[in-house]
Amino acid sequence: DDRWAPDGNVRKRQCHLCLLSKDPMRQWIPFQDPYPIPSSVPYQALNEDGGCSREYSPENLNKVIAECNRNGMLVTYNHPVWSLESYPEYAPLKGLWGMEYRNSSCAAQGYDENNGRVYQDFCVQGNRMMPVCADDMHSPIRPTNGYPVLGEGFVMVGAEKLEYGTVMTAMEKGDLYASCGPQINSLTLEGDSLHITCSKAARIQLISHTRCVSMAH
Length: 217
Hints:
globular, two-stranded antiparallel ribbon, four-stranded mixed β-sheet, alpha+beta, single chain
């Protein structure tokens, strides 16, 4: 169905998934990409039919996600607010590795892309999902509403070395955090006490099941 977007236009709801291959030599997508990619782009080979349908329904999307997982992909659920999706559309999704907690470009366009509640909706159903902060950059510098959003969102991975397989293994395990600025220097648990040191921040909150259970300034 059609839904209103913040810019006043009517747009169709949709679902965007990002696939991260655990094997750098494994190039695969679930279906033919409808957008033409210049032949100069090295991932042209990705445009192969993976045998999945583009039907927009939770049932079919779960089939697509499952097929992606079987083919060695970590699947991220992108910008649900920009996609105009609501709880009935995203709640049934299973097998997701992560979710865009914030998308800087979408936020700059007027969408509420601080998706804490959407993330909690998944977590309280028992889904273990990794948070992702990203800029959604499709070019080196893309001004959005008059300013570039390059570098606002990032994922810090606790990998032993900067090597593809090592980084992907750490990501799959969940040795990471997502941020739009503050950096975590250390995080340890001693008994019932959680200790954290980080860069300058207005406050630190520990939130569980949508409730703030602890706050420090």
